[in-house]
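Holo prediction. Input below; ligand is zinc ion.
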Amino acid sequence: MTIKIKQSFLAIVLLATSILSCTIESDTTTPTTTSTTVPDVYKKIYGATSITSDGTFITIKTNGTPDHESPYFATTNALYKAYTGTTFGGSEFKKNPNVIANQSFTFKLPINPVAATNHAATSLGVIGVALNGVAFYNQYAGPNNQVLTTEIASFDKYYGHPTATSQYHYHVEPLYLTTVKSTKSGLMGFLLDGFPVYGPQEESGTPVVSSDLDVYHGHTHATIDFPKATYHYHFTADAPYLNGNGYYGTAGTVTQ
Ligand SMILES: [Zn+2]
Ligand SMILES: [Zn+2]
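Structure of the complex:
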């Protein structure tokens, strides 16, 4: 008798559980074109102060400051650390006169990026967002799209530096992300067109060089974050480092 009661109780529990799981499943698999859910991949942008979606654009807010030590912080900042030694490409580090300050970035990235018909050139200034909320810049320096050669010596230990307007940014591999927070083959962030940016290696460990990529500095294949394959940019040790002849897709916006 006791056993019978236990069995029917178990049956009821099992039935209830299966009804419940069916309900949950049908809720999450219902296709919707206006979902405001933020896909998990954007949650990797751990430096964001907020991440929201309207179903068309992902809106990411950041203060643009690095979460790693830099000689470019004010000396009163806990992350200030003097630096001597070499930097990107073996250059001897030579500090520029600028200091890091909080920014107020709002990035709007297309949630379903597609190839653009006309590939607009990236501009000087902010062209994307790194996982730690810092800005990505292209391969040129102001004011007239000069090559970066002379600027490279002022990249700090983690390969970033600030502008005269105190905006810290990476033109090349963000070394703190590739060596501390992620790996050389990990997701590094997104350009404004919504396409992801990866480190200077494929998941197999093979280094990526510019000649492996198209003129926009990317190519298409599956990654851990995008198992169905996606176009993506790569950082490379050789110029243009992150972006070539413009955005692959249509750029969203950044306000600052
Ligand atoms: Zn710069
Ligand atoms: Zn790749």
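The mean pLDDT is 90. That is the main takeaway for now.
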